[in-house]
Every structure is written in C-alpha cells, then in structure tokens.
Amino acid sequence: MKVDIRRWALAGTAALALSLGTVAADAKTFKWANSGDVSSMDPYYRNETFLTTFLENIYEPLVRRDKKLALEPGLAVKWGQTAPTTWFFDLRPGVKFHDGTPFTADDVIFSLHRASTGGSNMKGYFTSVKTVRKVSDMRVEIDTSVPDPLLAIKLATIAIMSKTWAEKNNATVAADATKNEENFATRNAMGTGPFILKDRRAGEKTILVNNPNWWDKPAHNLTEVIFTPVVNPATRVAALKAGDIDMMYEVPPQDTEGLKKDANIKVIEGPETRIVYLGFDQERNELLESNIKGKNPFKDRRVREAFYRSIDVEAIKRTVMRGQSYPTALMVAPGINGHVGELDKRPPMLKTEEAKKLLADAGYPNGFETGMDCPNDRYVNDEKICQAVVAMLARIGIKVNLLAQTRSKYFTKILRKADFGPGDTSFYMLGWSPAATYDVHNVFESLLQTPSKETKKGAFNASGYSNKKLDELADKIEVETDKAKRDAMILEATRLYTQDYAYIPLHQQAVIWASRKNIELHQPADNRFPLRFVQVK
Amino acid sequence: MLAFILRRLAQSIAVLLAVGLVAFALFHYIGDPINAMVGQDTSMQEREELREKLGLNDPAPLQFARFIVNSVQGKFGLSYRTSEPVGRMILERLPATLELAFCAAVFAMGVGVPMGVWTGLYPRHWTSRFLQAASLIGVSLPTFLIGILLIMIFAVILGLLPSFGRGNTVQLGWWTSGFFTFSGLKALILPSITLGLFQLTLIMRLVRSEMLEVMRTDYIKFARARGLSNRAVNFGHALKNTLVPVITIAGLQLGAIIAFSIVTETVFSWPGMGQLFVQSVQFADIPVMAAYLLLVAFFFVVINLVVDLLYYAVDPRLRGGMTTASARGH
Q1: What is the least distance, in Å, from the CA of A241 to any CA of chain B?
Q2: Cβ atoms of residues A329 and A277 within 8 Å
Q3: Could you tell me which chain A residue has the CA closest to the CA of B46?
Q4: Which chain B residues are closer than 8 Å to A436 by Cβ?
Q5: Where along chain B do its domains lie?
Q6: What are phi and psi of B329, to 5 degrees?
Q7: Nearest to A228 among B77, B155, B269 (CB)
Q8: Which one, of A447, A474, A509, A475, lies nearest residue A280 by Cα?
Q9: A296 burial type by CB count under 10 A (0-12 exposed, 13-18 middle, 19+ buried)
Q10: What pLDDT band is residue A16 in, cutting at 50, 70 and 90?
Q11: Mutation test of the interface with chain A: which of B89, B144, B163, B263, choosing the one with the most A Cβ atoms within 10 A?
C-alpha cells in the first residue's frame, strides 16, 4: 500500500513537472524586486516615482514619455492649444480597458476630476485647470485660468481610469487614509495599459500579466511579471545572484562592485534627475543654531561663496559615493527642460587662505559655529556626505554641529511650517527633482522664489532665499508660451541664483539597477522602470 | 480553575493597556507620518489639513483614549501607508508568521530535546562535546548573520532552496498556508532554522542540565534498582521530571519567536507580521504599529496562560493543590 502511494505521488510530480515544463517553454516570466512595496494600486494615492512608474504599466496617461523622456502620444493621439488658455486632446480611437469596455472622453473627464479632488495626491497638477469639457467622444478640451504652457507635460503623470469600473465598485473618489473605509481601487486596477493586474497581495507579491489586446505594438516579450518587495538589501543581492529574481530596482551602492564581478549579472547605472544640494538659512536675522548673535552670516554672499568653494564635490564623488555621483553646478539636471548647459560649471575650489579671507572680509576672521541638518535614510550616503562637508568646512574655521536623523523627523524639522514660517534649521541638505513637470520652472517656483503664503510660491525654499528679480522672471516663465523668450528668461534667472550662491548644488546621485544577463531593459534618467521595454532572452 | 483563568484574563487586560500606553508614548518620538504620506510637491496647508484630519495634533492621552475605544470595538482604522484596513492587513500576514513560528518551535523542540537528553545522559561522549561546542554558534551568532549565511550557502552556491519569500501558498478560507505545496515547504526550511536555532540551543542546554541533575537523584537510582529498562528510566522518569522548567522556557520562547520573527522575516522577506511592522516603522504608520504591538502583547498573555495550565497537566502536585483550592471555592 505504502509503495503504491509513493508511486502515485511520483507519477503526479512527474506529470506536474512535465506540464510546467511545457508552459515554461513559451512563457516569459519576469521577476523583479524593490526595497519597498507599491503603497497602493490607486494611481492618485501618492505622488511618488515608484508608485506612478509601477502603475503606468497598468494605467496609461494621455501623453506618455518615450525612452528619452520626450512626450509622445499615449491615450491622446494629438494635443495642443486652440487659445492661450485652452488645450485640446484628441483621443485614441479603438482603445479598450482590460475588461473590454471602450475608452472614451467620459473616462478622461472622470479621471481628471478624481485626480484633482478627494484624497488624491495629484491635486498640485491641477492648480491652473478651470474646466474640463467633453467636445465629442474622442475630444476633450481643458480651460485654464492662466496660460499654462506645461499642462500637457503635467498630464503625462495622470493615469486614466475606467469610469464604468470605478462607479460599479464605488471607487469614484481617490483612496484616503483619513477615511474609515477601504477604497476598492487600493487593491484592484482597471486600465488600458500593456499589463493587467492579476493578483495583488500587498507586502507580499503583485502579479501582472500581458494585455493581449493592448493598442500599441509591444516592445516587450513578457507574459507574466511578478513583483516582490524584498526589504533587506543583502537578501535582494543574494536573490539576484541565485536567480530567484531577474532584476532589482534599487541596488545598495556598496554592493555594486561585487555585482559587477558576477558574470551572470549586469549593472545598469546612470544619473538621476534629482539634485542633492545644501542650503542655508538666509531669512532669519539671527541663526537658530550658531554662536554668532545679532546677525546672520549666511545673509552675506561672501560667506556663502566661501562655503560653496570649499566643498570639494569631486572628493565626495571619489570617496563617499565610490564614483557613483555626477557633480553639478545647477539646481536642475541635464534632461530637464531649462537646464542651461553653459552655466553648469562649478567655480574652482578656493585655497584655505582664500576662503578664510572671504570669511574675514565678511567679519568672521575666526570662523563661526553652525548647526547642520541631514537625513540618514533619504538619499544615497546622505549622512556620510554631510560628515565629509563638516570636515571640509572645518579647514576654513567653520565648526559644524551635524544632526543626522531619520527622514520623518528630519523633514519635520527643516521644512517650512504650515503658515509658511521658516523651518528650524540653519544649514541643511535636501534633494529635489522637478518630477512633476520635468521643467525648471518647478524648481524656481518651489525652491528659489521668495516664500509667500499668498502666492504659495517658495513652499520648499527652506532657506528663505529671496531675489526680487528672480521672482519676477519666474512669474513670467510660468505663463510664457514662446519658447525662445522663455529660454532667454531661464538663462537670466539661472545666472542670478548661481551668482548669488543661493544654494550649493552637490550632485546627481546615480540610479543603479541590476539584472540577470538575459534581461534587456531600458533605464530612463527619471528612475522610472517601464516594463513595456523589458525583454527576456 | 475558572476563577484562575478569569483572574489571569483580568491581569492580561491591564498588561494590554500598559503596552498600549507605552507604545503611544513612543510614537511621539518616531517622527511625523505626514511627510511619508504625501508627495514632495504637496503644499504646507494640505499637510497641515491632513495632520488635523488624522487627529495627530490632539494631545497624546486623547489619541490614546480614542485608540483604545476604537480597538475595543475592533476598529483599528486604515494604515497611513497603504490606506488598507489595519485589521485585515494584520490578519493576512498572521498565517505566515504563525506557520513560521510553529515550524521554528517544532524544529527547536524536536531537535533540542533529544539533543539535550543525549548530552545529559552521556556528558563525556565525544558527540556530546561536539554538540555542546556547535550549539555555541546558535547563541553567539546574530540571527541576521545566520540567515544571510544560510541564504548564501543553500540558495546562491548550492541553488537548492529559495533565497526569500514564502513560495506558493494555498488559500484555506482566510488562512494562507505554505504547508501544502512543494515550494511552500521548501521556502519554510531556511527561515525556520534561522528563527529556531537560538531556541534550540537554549532548550538543549536546559534539558541537558536538568537531566544531569535528575539523573543524580535517588529515585532514579531506585528505578534502576527496580530493574526498569533504560528507556523507562530515561524517558518515563528522568525526562518527565525535567519538563516543568522546559515548558516554561519553551512557552515564553514561543512568544519570543513570534515577536522576534521580525529579524528573520526581514532577512527572508517573509510576508508576515514582523516584516509589516518594520515597513510600518519606516513610514511612522502608527495604526499598524499600535495594533501589532497589542497583538504581540496579547500572544504573550495567552501563551503564559497556556503555560500555566500545562503545569497542571505535567505536575500532579499542582493538580492536587488546584482541586483543593477550587473545592475551597465552592
């Protein structure tokens, strides 16, 4: 009897193995991992790169980005402006959602409304939008309150959802953590994209399958995609080496060298659009954390220059970043609209005596003391970079008291308060990417314009840097639709803030991914990972 | 008996309240969840509104009272991180943690007790010395390192076992089980060993020292004099009398296994409650953390109760005491 059971079990396993084997021959399963899970399947739940890039595989925007980040037709085939304050979008005919319902203007109007209300985190993209009108089933027009040259760019981040599906499942309002009931769209998805959500187990795994009825010709050859969050970096590396995953999205910098030596693995790296920079409190009349009383040394341009030109970004690149950083002189990266290449040159380093002389001229012959705030889990090697800066500034007689802490505490300390009052910092590190628009205006508006509760500009200008001329230019850049005029103003504004030493831009950190040798994929500079370009060989 | 259980339950409520209070006092130091909840472009007013809506501006005692009132009604709210109901998030991850803890405990007991008996009976045998030395590894290496070492050997170099995750699972009602698939069972091996190794060492050493002590006692000599077989002496008389402390420790350790599976779950990316807790700490996801801590406290309370009841089963002297006690109660 016993023998019989064993024989049956054997036969069963063999049959199972056989059937699996035949499936495996033509199925291309792609397994990948990241340090954290996608927080939700609701595309408006968070405005963060990982969530939007993950859901772009299921949901699609009206205009999407190609491999070089340029706009190309997505669910809209044609778009443009009929008047300075009116945009039109001609929709792609014949597109169907994953459940077979056709895609029409109603879905667009519904989605834009959902994204701009309720618990949506995407409201920021709709500040200029006045009305969204349905002209026909295949045409939508949007009226803006002021001319908005960036509207189409902004809509490249807004995924289009199915109206019928959302209404049927009571998910017409974006998911909201402050409500007491769960939103259906948190765990389910209904888009038009190249992949269909098959199974969502939050925190465990998320399975996507190929959409055979996708409107575009697929550049991928995947039949199934399995995404798993693997928190521990060492496990992620081991899983890739063992072949349990095909690709890892975030590679710990210290493991890059080791992975490069593995013949079965390739490391893909490039500069990320985020700029990591240092800022100083130029707003208060007396610094919060300094031994200088009665005045604020950072209001003096010479002090800022001495700081700027005493920090050796190349040394930081060499030692702290192990070569994986791209030093910069600007607050925007190449690839962002409005990056002025001719000004992207850092002034040469000062000799110690020269820097000390600048400080002496400003009235600080013996240097001074200042606090410094730094995250320790937000940017690559953030705390170590700050430590290096502390050492470099010590050489010119500046004593920096570094406070490095976890991001949730750090941001609360340094960011401006709800009433736009300055945050509690004197000298700090921050990173910024104009991910919303891929345009320099976002940086002017958020980081460089004078903070004001009324205009809501300068919300993340933690320094309180203020330059009237730059304010005016930025306001003009916001509504200028003539490209040549706009570029000229951008050049001027860029010159202003670099000459002011408003900030100390350090570098772009590297985006590092790793995959098995048999995987071909495309890595754009915005750290997005479109599955539609993945090939399993 | 009933009075005893009721008294313990009353005590456990006090324990749970205390844990909740300590947890809430700590949450004030983990930072502001708002910045993790919104994108970088979210305006300051919107952040402030969100903070107000979540009640984070209320004084801590009020937040605590609200949490207790809601928890008693089984309402744990929505996670700040994912907007999913906290109760269900924990319930979904509970099977993974309990199955892992169960396997680790079985491994620790199943291997630890025989090893302890062996080394206790033959303390001078070379195998005993070897086991003693080897078991030092179990207590001296951190769980994290053992996990990574096992992954390196069995997943990366030998390619025998999966490096992370739970494999395929089977849905049984709301319970997901990895016991019924080949890949699920394979996935259990490394995490169970990692999690159970420390307990194994502890149990082995405990059983050994207890055995050494018991074997010297008179009744063992008398048992031998009565001509009982080795097996009856060793297991029927000696082992049984070592069990009271072993059960205490094993019981408490089961609680520890569940609570400290955090490290093992993180290393093996095991989709259980421990991993959920770690993710929640990073996001200052207060509702999930609070519910998790209460649940773990609850487990400890229940396990302690079960341990106390087990004493009665093992130790007849206590049983006698109990009947008189309850008789007095009547």
Answers
A1: 6
A2: no
A3: A418
A4: 41
A5: 2-72, 87-318
A6: -65, -30
A7: B269
A8: A447
A9: buried
A10: very low
A11: B163
CB contact under 8 A, B84 and A417: no
Using the Cβ of A180 and the Cβ atoms of chain B, whether some distance falls under 8 Å is answered with yes
- A415 shares contact with chain B (CB less than 8 Å): yes
Q: Is the dihedral of CA A348, A354, A355, A360 positive or negative?
A: negative
Alpha carbon B155 to chain centroid, angstroms: 26
**In sequence order, what E strands does chain B have?**
170-172, 175-177
Residue B286: closest C-alpha in chain A: A177
DSSP letter for each residue of B191-240: HHHHHHHHHHHHHHHHHHHHHHHHHTSHHHHHHHHTT--HHIIIIIIIIH
CB contact under 8 A, B38 and A121: yes
As a whole number of angstroms, the distance between CA A320 and CA A468 comes to 37
Q: Does the structure show a pLDDT above 80 at B320?
A: no
Question: Which residue do the tokens 């401006």 mark?
Answer: A416
Q: What pLDDT, in 10s, does the model give residues A434-486?
A: 877 889 999 999 999 999 888 888 888 999 999 999 999 999 999 888 889 99
pLDDT band at B325 (very low <50, low <70, confident <90, very high): very low
Among B residues 164-193, those touching chain A with beta carbons less than 8 Å apart: 164-166, 182
Q: What are phi and psi of A248, to 5 degrees?
A: -120, 135
pLDDT bucket at B318, cuts 50 / 70 / 90: low
Query: Highest-confidence range of A98-112, A410-424, A426-440, B127-141, by mean pLDDT?
Result: A98-112
Are B118 and B132 in contact, with CB atoms under 8 Å apart?
no
Range of weakest confidence among A81-85, B59-63, B179-183, B259-263: B59-63
Q: What is the torsion angle, in degrees rounded to the nearest 10, for the CA atoms of residue B21, residue B24, residue B25 and residue B27?
A: 160
CB contact under 8 A, B39 and A48: yes
Tell me if A161 sits within 8 A of A190, measured CB to CB. Answer: yes
- For the segment A24-32, the average pLDDT, to the nearest whole number, is 79
A48 contacts on B by Cβ (under 8 Å): 39
Contact A46 B39 (CB under 8 A): yes
- Could you confirm whether domain B87-318 is CATH 3.30.1360.140? no
How close B9 gets to chain A, by Cα (Å)? 30
- Closest alpha carbon within chain A to B32: A408
Task: State ipTM.
Answer: 0.81
Sole residue written with tokens 């089980």: B177
pLDDT-derived band at B286 (thresholds 50, 70, 90) equals confident
CA distance A109 to A234: 45
First to last CA, chain B: 12
Q: Which residue has the higher pLDDT, A234 or B61?
A: A234
CB count within 10 Å of CB B198 equals 22
- In the A/B pair of chains, how many CB contacts fall below 8 A? 165
A412·B48 Cβ contact <8 A: no
- Note whether B34 and A40 are within 8 A (CB): no
Q: Do B83 and A186 touch (CB under 8 A)?
A: yes
Q: At what angle do helices B273-282 and B86-121 cross, to 10 degrees?
A: 120
| Average pLDDT value for residue range A118-131 | 86
pLDDT mean over B223-234: 84
Question: Mapping DSSP to helix (H, G, I), strand (E, B) and coil, where does residue A326 land?
Answer: strand
Q: Which residues of B touch A239 (CB under 8 A)?
A: 155, 163-164, 269
Q: Are A372 and A426 in contact (CB under 8 A)?
A: yes
Per-residue pLDDT band for A212 (boundaries 50, 70, 90) equals very high
Residue of A nearest to B50 (CA): A178
Nearest CA in chain A to B263: A232
Select the residue of B35, B93, B283 nearest A203 (Cβ to Cβ).
B93
| pLDDT tens-digit map of A42-56 | 999 888 788 899 999
